[in-house]
Amino acid sequence: MKLVVAIVKPFKLDDVKAAVQELGVHGMTVNEVQGFGRQRGHTEVYRGAEYTIDFVPKVKIEILVDDDDGPRVAEKIAGAARTGKIGDGKVWILPVEGLIRIRTGEAGSDAL
Amino acid sequence: MSINAGDTAWVLASAALVMFMTPGLAFFYGGMVRARNVLTMLMQNFFCLGLVSVLWAVVVYSVAFGGTNKWIGNFEYAWMGHFNTAPAGLSLSIPPSLYMAFQLMFAVITPALITGAIADRVRFGAWAWFAGIWAILVYAPVAHWVFAPSGWLFQRGALDFAGGTVVHINAGIAALAVVLVIGRRRGWPHSPMPPHSLPLTLLGTGILWFGWFGFNAGSALGANGIAVQALVNTHMAAAAAMLGWVVVEMLHGGRATILGAASGAVAGLVAITPCAGYVGGMSPLAIGAITGVICYGAVNLKFKLHLDDALDVVGVHLVGGIVGSLLLGFFADKAVNPAGRNGVLVHGGGFALLGDQLVAVGATLVYSFVVTFAIAWVLHKVLPGGLRVDEEAEDVGLDLREHAEVGYAFAER
After folding, report:
1. Strands A2-8 and A49-53
2. Which sign, positive or negative, has the C-alpha torsion B231, B353, B318, B283?
């Protein structure tokens, strides 16, 4: 089992959700986060003060998948979330050691 | 004078309008601070309604309006003693206790103005001590000098229709004095501390503008042509000042901001406060526009002076109050209000009024600064922990530490 994690631009969430549902994923968890990558640090002036803005709002998506599906789901997310402009985000794949469905107690791949 | 029903009805309504300005101010400031400190700001403002009202009934009205001494009142009105006798020299067509109630609302909001400058770093208990003592030792004497007919500035002929000196210059310079005692916030000016809720600020601005009709037009103490002039002047000055600020903001920084529009309107309202019943024609537009532009410049000054006046009380209330009080020396017109005087720009005017305005402004500045600084300095030394919260509380946010409450319990189910 794998956990696919993606950080994408907030307005791209709907596109990503639609795209991965085509692949038949079993669910997802979404978080509102902030972050920066290589684009960090632009300066803004507000009310006479100069502020360096580092963090930008993003959305974090987590999807549990079968071992072989990781790369396919990650590709699909990347394609749906891409705008070509700076700050599009990243997607990565983590190994999952254990998994339980809380309602039934099923474990392992059965819990996906 | 006998009691006039129309006058009484209007001043009754005005007292309610001015009362509404204190929660309005609370929201105006509250929206500008960070979410972790919103309750602290709201409480410091709202609590003045409780504290200052009670002190007013017990002694402060008396110190402000009692007796015939030119420097200070007396104890004739203490403990609500014969509230139905008008202060010496005042000829009222409304019940005297209504005058007391109307003036009370001014006394409540004036210390509340200071909270904006000291945002995010003062303990609530310390603030309560400061506000109460300040109302007695600073607000009441200056109110006596300017509003009470026996007061020396009133006798001198300095004009202040609704409290440019008593309220705005007084609170503005007091804010500066307290900021000098307590110092700047941790992280200022390098860490961004943008407003957490500009919708709340704009709500507060609307309430202030609305209430200001009572503040200024109510100060005519009658339902008459002067009150109407004051209402028109108030509105026009706010409008022109908002435009002045927004235009300069767009030219200087490239965009108009909500905060700028709100601040501009308030700056105009502050400036027209001393002028409201003494000027006419297009002058409120001039007064507003000039003040909007000057105050825009003034708020940027705090960075050069490295002074953390958190929400620009000095830039808007002190500077706006001074500009308005002095512009009154130019625009005052007896044709508008025969009880007033003529300013420099009016035929038959000259510089006498401007001179008296300068004296009133100067006296308020000096007295308020010195006594406020002393009160703040003594409290900072004498109260356990001083005026400021500790460093950790300031980082975590004051609401949890001071009040064990959270402004926005969004994580709750």
Report:
1. unpaired
2. positive
Number of CB pairs, chain A paired with chain B, less than 8 A apart: 20
Domains and CATH numbers, chain B: 8-403 (1.10.3430.10)
Cβ proximity of B356 and B160 under 8 Å: no
Contacts of B22 (CB under 8 A, 6+ apart): B45, B46, B48, B49, B105, B108, B109, B112
- Topology (CATH) of A2-111: Alpha-Beta Plaits (3.30.70)
Q: Chain B: nearest CA to A49, how far in angstroms? A: 7
| Type and span of the H or E element at B329 | helix B319-331
Task: Give chain A positions within 8 Å (CB) of B257.
Answer: 46-47
The sign of the torsion formed by the CA atoms of B370, B372, B377, B379 equals positive
B307-339 pLDDT, tens digit each: 999 999 999 999 999 999 999 999 999 999 999
Give Cβ neighbours of residue B262 (< 8 Å, ≥ 6 apart). Answer: B28, B198, B201, B202, B205
Closest B-chain CA to A53: B192
Amino acid at B34: R
ipTM: 0.72
Domains of chain A by residue range: 2-111
Is the dihedral angle over the CA atoms B14, B19, B20, B25 positive or is it negative? positive
How many angstroms separate the CA atoms of B169 and B143, rounded? 12
Q: pTM for this one?
A: 0.92
